[in-house]
Design a protein that fits this description.
The complex is a heterodimer of chains A (313) and B (317).
Chain A lengths: L1 H35 L6 H21 L7 H33 L5 H22 L4 E2 L11 E4 L2 E4 H23 L1 H11 L1 H6 L4 H27 L1 E2 L3 H16 L4 H21 L5 H15 L16
Antiparallel strand pairs in A: 1-4, 2-3
Chain B lengths: L7 H16 L3 H26 L8 H14 E2 L4 E2 L2 H20 L7 H21 L13 E2 L5 E2 L2 E2 L3 H23 L2 H11 L1 H6 L4 H27 L1 E2 L6 H14 L4 H17 L7 H15 L16
Antiparallel strand pairs in B: 1-2, 3-6, 4-5
Classes of the chains: A mainly alpha (313), B mainly alpha (317).
C-alpha cells in the first residue's frame, strides 16, 4: 500500500495532463451536440488526423535541420497547421455528410450513421495513405528529458506543463469567444432555437459550419498534444480517445462547454486512480462503468441541462 | 395476402435458398452462404431492437459474444462440459435473453443518442471482460480465446461440412424470420412500433413501455444467442476479436442498408454486406474505405434504406 501511495502524486499528474486533453477533445463533441443534437462520431478520427499533421510538421522540421529552432516555436508550428487542417476537414464533413441530412429534417439516426461511415472512411484513408504501423513523435527535439520540476513527490515534465497550459488557454479562449463575442451569441442562439435564430437574422449555416471548424480544430490540437505525450500515434488511436472524450462530454453534461472541461478532468483523474489502485487492464472498464452510472443516475450529466428529453431517434 | 408476414415471394425465396448449394461453384461459397444466413439471423435480432422498437443499440455484439462464450462454456473441453447441442442451444438462448434484460434495464430511462452510447459502453465492457478474464481464474481464455468446441450433433449425426452448417443456419434463419414476421403484427410488435414513433403517446395509450422495451432487448438478444452458438460451433473456437465494436456496426449497417424494420430488406442487407467483400476480394484493402463511404452516401441519398417503403421520415423539429 505504501508503494501505491508513493506513486499516487505522479499518477495524479498524469491524470491531470490526460484529463485536460480529454476535455479539449470533448469540446468538439459538446459544441456540435449543443447546436445540432448529433454525436459527431468522426470527431475521434479528426483528433487522430490532427496527430498525424503534427507528426508530419515535426518530421519536416527535423528534415530541414531545424534543430536550432527554439522549442517555443516548434509547438505553434505543429499546432497551427494541425488545427487548420482538422478544422477544414470538420467543415467538409459537415458540408457533405451531415448538412444534407439535417436540412431535410431527417430522423436522428441518419446523421449518426453518416458520421459512423465518415469515421470508418477517415480511419481507413489514413491507414492506406500513412501505413498501418505506428509513427513515433521525435519529442527530444522539443523538450529535453531533464526539463522537469518536483512538486509534492511528483516529477512534472515541461511537456505536461505545456500541455495543460495550451489546453487550458484554448478552453479559456473558447469560453470568451462563446460568452463575449457576436459569433458566440449567434452560436448560443442557434443552439437555443435554430429557426428563431434564422428569423432574427443569424446565418445559421455559417454558424454551424464555424462551430464544426472550432470544435474540429480543438480536436486536432488535442491530437498533437496526445502525440507529444505518448510519442506514438497510429490510425486507430481516434477510436478509444474519441470514446473517452465523448464520455467526458456526457459526464459533464453534453452541450455544456464548462461541463466538457470538468468531465475531461474527472475522467483523466479517475483513470489514473484506476491504474494506481486496480489492474490497469480494467482502466477502460472503469471509464465506461462511470459513464453508464452517471447516465443512469443523472442522465443530463453533472452540469447539463435537460437535453436528454429532446434526444430522440 | 391471407396471413400477414407470409407473402408468396417468401415461399419462392425459401425454395431458391434450399437448392442454392447446388449452384455454388465450390465449398468456399457454400461457407459464404452459411455466413449470410448466420448474419441475417443476427441482423433480424438487432432489427427487433432498432427497427421495430426504435432503440438505437450500438453494442449488439455484446449479446453475440455472450452467446458464443456461453455455448463454449457448455460444450467444449474448456470446463469439461460436453452438453448435447439440443440441450445447450435452448440454455444459451435463455441466458442470452436474460443478459439482454440485464443490459437493457439500466437504459430504460435513456433516449436516442444517450441510449446508443450506453449500449456502446456495454459492448466495450463485454469485449474488455472477454479479453481480460483469463486471470486470476481462467474463465474466457483471454486474448487467445478458447479452442476445441464441440460441433453440433443431433441424434448421433455430427455436422461437419459447410453444407450441413448452411442448412442448419438456413433453418434458424427461417424460424427467426417467421418469428419476426409474427411478432411485428402481434400485440408486442404494435407496442414496439408505437414506442418507436412516439414514446409519450405510446405510454398515454396504456402501453407499458418498460416491459415492451425489455421484451425487445430480450428477444433481440436471444437471436444473438442463436447466432453466437452457431459461430462458436462452426468455428470450433472463439476469440474476443470476433466481438469488436466494428462487428456491432457491421450488423447495424445490414439493418440500415436493407431498410430498417423491413424483414426482406434486413436479409438482403446481410446478404449484400457479407458477399460484397467476397466479390471484391482483390480490393480487400479498400473494403472498409468503400464501406464507410457507402454508409455516408446511402444516408445522404436514401436514408430510409434500400428496401424500405413503409416508414415515412418524421421530422422532430
Amino acid at each position: 500500500m505504501a508503494d501505491v501511495l508513493a506513486i499516487l502524486p505522479q499518477q495524479l499528474v498524469f491524470g491531470l495532463a490526460l484529463g485536460t486533453v480529454y476535455g479539449l477533445v470533448a469540446l468538439g463533441y459538446t459544441m456540435v451536440y449543443g447546436i445540432l443534437f448529433m454525436i459527431n462520431f468522426a470527431h475521434g478520427e479528426i483528433f487522430m488526423i490532427g496527430a498525424y499533421v503534427g507528426w508530419w510538421v515535426l518530421a519536416l522540421l527535423l528534415q530541414a535541420q531545424a534543430g536550432a529552432l527554439h522549442p517555443a516555436w516548434v509547438l505553434p508550428l505543429m499546432l497551427l497547421p494541425a488545427m487548420l487542417f482538422t478544422g477544414a476537414l470538420g467543415v467538409g464533413l459537415e458540408r457533405f455528410a451531415y448538412r444534407p441530412l439535417y436540412l431535410r429534417g431527417a430522423t436522428r439516426l441518419g446523421p449518426l450513421i453518416s458520421a459512423i461511415g465518415a469515421s470508418i472512411f477517415l480511419q481507413n484513408a489514413v491507414m492506406l495513405t500513412q501505413g498501418a504501423r505506428m509513427k513515433v513523435y521525435m519529442t527530444s527535439l522539443l523538450f529535453p528529458r531533464d526539463w522537469r520540476i518536483q512538486i509534492a513527490g511528483a516529477s512534472v515534465s515541461a511537456l505536461v506543463i505545456v500541455m495543460v497550459a495550451v489546453a487550458g488557454l484554448m478552453m479559456w479562449g473558447l469560453h470568451l469567444l462563446v460568452q463575449r463575442t457576436t459569433l458566440g451569441r449567434s452560436i448560443r442562439a442557434v443552439a437555443e432555437d435554430r429557426e428563431m435564430a434564422a428569423i432574427m437574422g443569424v446565418n445559421v449555416r455559417r454558424v454551424i459550419a464555424l462551430t464544426f471548424f472550432m470544435g474540429s480544430a480543438l480536436g486536432g490540437a488535442g491530437g498533437v498534444l496526445v502525440g507529444l505525450y505518448y510519442t506514438q500515434i497510429d490510425f486507430f488511436m481516434g477510436y478509444s480517445a474519441g470514446l473517452k472524450a465523448f464520455t467526458a462530454a456526457v459526464l459533464g453534461g453534453i452541450g455544456n462547454i464548462r461541463g466538457a472541461m470538468l468531465g475531461g478532468l474527472i475522467l483523466g483523474l479517475v483513470e489514473s486512480l484506476a491504474v494506481t489502485f486496480m489492474n490497469p487492464a480494467y482502466k477502460d472498464v472503469v471509464a465506461f462503468v462511470l459513464l453508464i452510472l452517471v447516465l443512469v443516475i443523472r442522465p443530463t450529466g453533472l452540469l447539463g441541462e435537460s437535453v436528454a428529453a429532446r434526444a430522440k431517434v | 395476402m391471407a396471413q400477414p408476414g407470409f407473402p408468396r415471394w417468401a415461399a419462392v425465396l425459401g425454395l431458391v435458398a434450399l437448392v442454392a448449394p447446388l449452384a455454388a461453384p465450390n465449398d468456399y461459397w457454400i461457407g459464404v452462404m452459411a455466413r449470410i444466413c448466420l448474419y441475417a439471423t443476427l441482423a433480424l435480432g438487432l432489427n427487433i431492437v432498432v427497427g421495430f422498437a426504435g432503440l438505437l443499440d450500438l453494442g449488439y455484439v455484446a449479446f453475440f459474444g455472450i452467446g458464443s462464450y456461453l455455448y463454449t462454456f457448455l460444450a467444449s473441453a474448456h470446463f469439461g462440459l460436453h452438453l448435447p447441442f439440443l440441450v445447450t442451444l435452448p440454455i444459451v438462448i435463455l441466458l442470452t435473453a436474460g443478459s439482454g434484460i440485464l443490459i437493457g434495464a439500466p437504459t430504460l430511462r435513456l433516449a436516442g443518442d444517450y441510449l446508443a452510447i450506453v449500449t456502446l459502453g456495454f459492448g466495450e465492457i463485454t469485449y474488455l471482460l472477454l479479453i481480460n478474464l483469463d486471470r486470476p481464474v481462467n474463465i474466457t481464455g483471454g486474448p487467445s480465446g478458447i479452442v476445441g468446441i464441440d460441433p453440433p450433433a443431433v441424434a448421433g449425426f455430427a455436422l461437419s461440412t459447410n453444407t450441413h452448417y448452411y442448412y442448419l443456419f438456413l433453418a434458424a434463419l427461417g424460424l427467426t424470420l417467421l418469428a419476426s414476421a409474427r411478432l411485428r403484427h402481434s400485440r408486442i410488435g404494435w407496442a414496439w412500433q408505437a414506442i418507436r414513433e412516439d414514446e409519450l403517446a405510446a405510454r398515454a395509450m396504456g402501453i407499458n413501455t418498460t416491459v415492451a422495451k425489455l421484451q425487445a432487448f430480450a428477444i433481440g438478444a436471444s437471436f444473438a444467442g442463436i447466432g453466437g452458438s452457431f459461430l462458436a460451433s462452426w468455428q470450433r473456437s472463439v476469440f474476443p476479436e470476433n466481438f469488436l465494436f466494428t462487428e456491432s456496426i457491421n450488423i447495424l449497417a445490414m439493418v440500415i442498408v436493407g431498410g430498417m424494420g423491413n424483414l426482406l430488406g434486413v436479409v438482403a442487407g446481410a446478404a449484400l454486406l457479407v458477399s460484397l467483400p467476397e466479390v471484391f476480394r482483390d480490393l480487400q484493402r479498400y473494403r472498409l474505405l468503400a464501406f464507410g463511404l457507402m454508409l455516408m452516401v446511402l444516408m445522404v441519398f436514401r436514408p430510409q434504406g434500400l428496401l424500405s417503403f413503409e416508414r415515412k421520415e418524421s421530422s422532430d423539429d
